[in-house]
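Design a sequence for this backbone.
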């Protein structure tokens, strides 16, 4: 039995009676650009995030870039982030005119190391971008305690973590609730994925939200009147309609991912070369990815491929070791946890539609490899 890393066709078959009428509603009105579904989705995602405003945009990358543009970064301005993430997190800092400053990650969760963040803060630090990696939140309470007294903005990269929660002082707080702004991605493979590209920013800073709405429309709130130079980063109305149809399923999909993760975790308990990433006990993980740290990773990859088991490596080269960031001067070994993880991590199928037979097939193939 082959098991794909992701099966969007299975998801489509389950929800097509919800999604197709929503798309046809847009087609029949022909309101493809900034149609009414945009504002509705913005309101719904803001509500989910315990924020007051949502700002739809063209991609998760733009959801990071537009707030950084709003900070008007100069070349000497620093933004602290993790090297163990998708390229857009740091690429947008560069493209917004600032300097990425990388700090290492925690060995158990691979989320950003808050102690390392504290050591990296300088008078030039303008923002911190924690990534809620693979679907569990970084330690926002400690990060905000560092940032707020210094006037440093915290931008949550929640592109993998829509709906994730963290318990702070006994109360559940959600991704999108605590930072100055939060970025989401609706790339098709995400837990809430569009049928194309798309993103959204949420915030409870109403003035910032209005600025971001201008920046996504060439810098003007009124057509042909431009307060500043912005860009074209609109979320398509068709994609908003798809996402609105999918949104009521998000909580149950995330619960199913947690169920699958627990099943995997139990199955690998006695396989010593296999170590699932830890779930912080204060977090409710949404498992955008289910990631292991394993011995002989590359050989395991070859074995999984031969057996028809979908898998992926997120991420094989930490960002501080990418050629485009060589000018920043990070030497090999400067981020030891990230560098070691890059040689050990592998992610397995975790999508909600997986059957127990498929889960057992993945487990049996991995156990057989290490037997």
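Sequence:
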């Amino acid at each position: 039995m082959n098991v794909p890393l992701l099966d969007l066709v299975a998801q489509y078959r389950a929800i097509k009676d919800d999604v197709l009428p929503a798309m046809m509603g847009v087609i029949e009105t022909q309101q493809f650009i900034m149609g009414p579904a945009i504002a509705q989705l913005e309101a719904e995602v803001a509500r989910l995030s315990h924020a007051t405003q949502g700002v739809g945009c063209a991609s998760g990358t733009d959801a990071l870039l537009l707030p950084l543009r709003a900070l008007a970064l100069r070349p000497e301005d620093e933004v602290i982030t993790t090297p163990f993430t998708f390229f857009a997190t740091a690429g947008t800092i560069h493209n917004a005119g600032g300097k990425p400053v990388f700090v290492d990650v925690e060995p158990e969760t691979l989320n950003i190391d808050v102690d390392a963040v504290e050591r990296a803060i300088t008078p030039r630090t303008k923002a911190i971008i924690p990534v809620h990696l693979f679907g569990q939140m970084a330690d926002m309470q400690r990060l905000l305690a560092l940032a707020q007294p210094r006037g440093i903005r915290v931008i949550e990269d929640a592109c993998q973590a829509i709906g994730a929660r963290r318990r702070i002082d006994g109360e559940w707080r959600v991704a999108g609730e605590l930072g100055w702004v939060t970025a989401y991605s609706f790339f098709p493979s995400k837990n809430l994925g569009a049928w194309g590209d798309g993103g959204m920013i949420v915030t409870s800073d109403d003035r910032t939200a209005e600025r971001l709405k201008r920046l996504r429309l060439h810098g003007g709130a009124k057509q042909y009147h431009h307060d500043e130079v912005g860009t074209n980063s609109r979320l398509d109305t068709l994609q908003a309609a798809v996402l609105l149809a999918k949104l009521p399923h998000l909580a149950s999909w995330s619960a199913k991912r947690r169920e699958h993760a627990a099943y995997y975790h139990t199955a690998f308990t006695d396989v010593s070369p296999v170590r699932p990433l830890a779930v912080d006990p204060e977090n409710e993980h949404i498992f955008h990815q289910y990631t292991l740290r394993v011995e002989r990773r590359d050989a395991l990859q070859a074995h999984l491929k031969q057996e028809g088991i979908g898998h992926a490596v997120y991420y094989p080269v930490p960002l501080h070791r990418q050629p485009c960031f060589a000018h920043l001067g990070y030497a090999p070994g400067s981020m030891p946890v990230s560098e070691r993880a890059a040689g050990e991590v592998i992610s397995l199928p975790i999508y909600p539609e997986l059957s127990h037979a498929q889960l057992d097939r993945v487990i049996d193939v991995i156990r057989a490899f290490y037997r």
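The mean pLDDT is 97.
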